[in-house]
Amino acid sequence: MAGCVARRALTVGSRWWSRSLTGTRGPRPLCAAGGAGAFPPVAATTTRRHLSSRNRPEGKVLETVGVFEVPKQNGKYETGQLFLHSVFGYRGVVLFPWQARLYDRDVASAAPEKTENPAGHGSKEVKGKTHTYYQVLIDARDCPHISQRSQTEAVTFLANHDDSRALYAIPGLDYVSHEDILPYTSTDQVPIQHELFERFLQYDQTKAPPFVARETLRAWQEKNHPWLELSDVHRETTENIRVTVIPFYMGMREAQNSHVYWWRYCIRLENLDSDVVQLRERHWRIFSLSGTLETVRGRGVVGREPVLSKEQPAFQYSSHVSLQASSGHMWGTFRFERPDGSHFDVRIPPFSLESNKDEKTPPSGLHW
């Protein structure tokens, strides 16, 4: 929509999103810049921006992709809900919800459902509360612009062959917290470009949202439930740097006459302050039920040393760990550097590695 006047903008990398000022009480168009590098990053707190010939790159226009809806403060989003990710800026669609237990070391829960206190590192007791996450598909057009993530998939599986370390991933499959959802509607019958969109969802104009689950989605969810399930989320803030960890059990493999248990874990780092900081080092402690305690130190994470700023306050990545025992614990610290060269350590909330799944063989591919 050329000439769109923007009131609020959300950005990640070089993708720029805007809300139109036309009609303060009516629907507000959601616009997307047409192409990589279309606009420089604009903070989500921007109050007013006029797109004119002076600040619109040559050959770049805004295209309407939908209309924002009011985010839900209570209740859940339904299958087929279109959304914009409030932190990473991509378009996506909700497949189904997960009810997780959030262990927040910054907030005391008045109504605990479960208590966690992993042994071996002297952590305080933390009480969990229910929190909603969603399994979603990411629009493939937006993946190249998500610069503050090491990858655009949060789901990996163990390959079903002799190599016990082999993994495969499903591109564009993610987990999103309820508060990160910015819902919108679209008149497009295929608004999200992903190879699984039409396989999982079908258009039904009589429904709201107008995308309903196919039987293939329900069957896929049921058959892969043990390897997709999001059950526990761990969060802790140190000096305005919030670390969120989500562990997932991946399954067990036999290697050299012993059992090897695998987990993946997803970590988000968020700078809640306006000061720029850079992650420099990681320090992990990994305890196995077999009695071993391993220490891992290294530069950065997944080969990167991300900078967290007011413009790009978050970074997310996934990694994997294996144990020769059915359970264990992980905890540690990230070392950050300030612009003046000083350093400080940020605690990684301790979390359990559990293999309490009934099935012992992970899937070897997408099950329909």
UniProtKB/TrEMBL annotation:
Signal peptide: none annotated. One of its GO terms (cellular component) is mitochondrial nucleoid. InterPro entries: ApaG_domain (IPR007474), ApaG_sf (IPR036767), Hemimethylated_DNA-bd_dom (IPR011722), Hemimethylated_DNA-bd_sf (IPR036623). One of its GO terms (biological process) is DNA repair. PROSITE patterns: APAG. Keywords: DNA damage, DNA repair, Mitochondrion, Nucleus, Phosphoprotein, Transit peptide. Residues 235-360 form the ApaG domain. It is found in: Mitochondrion matrix; Nucleus. This is Polymerase delta-interacting protein 2. It comes from Odocoileus virginianus.
